[in-house]
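Lay summary. Proteins are chains of building blocks that fold into shapes, and those shapes determine what they do. In this project we predict the shape from the chain. Here is one chain we studied, written as its sequence of building blocks.
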Amino acid sequence: MKKRIQSEVTKLELIQARLLREQKSCDERLRGEKFVCKKRKTGYQYYVDDKYVSKKKEGRRLGLLADKEYREKMLLALKKEIQVLKRAIRSEENLADVYRNMHRGKQILFTPDYVPIELKIEEFEMAQYEGLPFREGDSTDFVTGKGERVRSKSEKIIADELARQGIPYKYEKPLLLNVDGMMRTFYPDFTVMNVTTGEIKYLEHFGMVDSSNYLKNTLSKLDVYEKNGLLIGREVILLHESAYRPLNTRVITDYIREFLT
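And here is the predicted shape, written in a compact code that computers can read:
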């Protein structure tokens, strides 16, 4: 949450800086003028310093005055909003510090109501599991930058990009899902964590979508996800390719930015 709030603060501060620059270059003749608009039966009437001003004759001047009023009010609103967001960041840090500052031996004894994101990431990365074993005789040799063996060149590309961008992930970590009333174990290609919220998502790479049997199995798997409340484009991220359409590596970065940061 802190990262998301800080991103919003940065965006608002950029708008604030631009408005301040434009305010300084504002026409000196507009400063100090009292601008009033009144609704009449025939439309709107405008007054500057209590004198009627024709929109037809001086529309540009009126537009500049309206724009000036907007910028002044916007700057005040931006200042207040930025202050609120910065207080929220400090408040989040204070909440996180309650648990963060406890002895580690005490931390492991309970689950806090508010867990700092760095501890969520640490716990996720330390989790041990037994992944899907490779078939006997499988001679594929694709190894990620972290030393993990994966099943294809595309999965190596995905894993290395996740690592490069600091996204915590687990390769083929088992996931129990309900299938027609029975719990079955699935192995998502990548179980990943959003580094801002700590949310867990599942990234699937479908590499042979031009194969009818493969596509049938893929749709069945997606159906299971959805029936377990894991929706495509929310908890489940899809990457795909075929013999004629290779993996679009630029899209990996787009999905990371959209769902994992």
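What the prediction tells us: The domain at 117-259 is CATH 3.40.1350 (Trna Endonuclease; Chain: A, domain 1).
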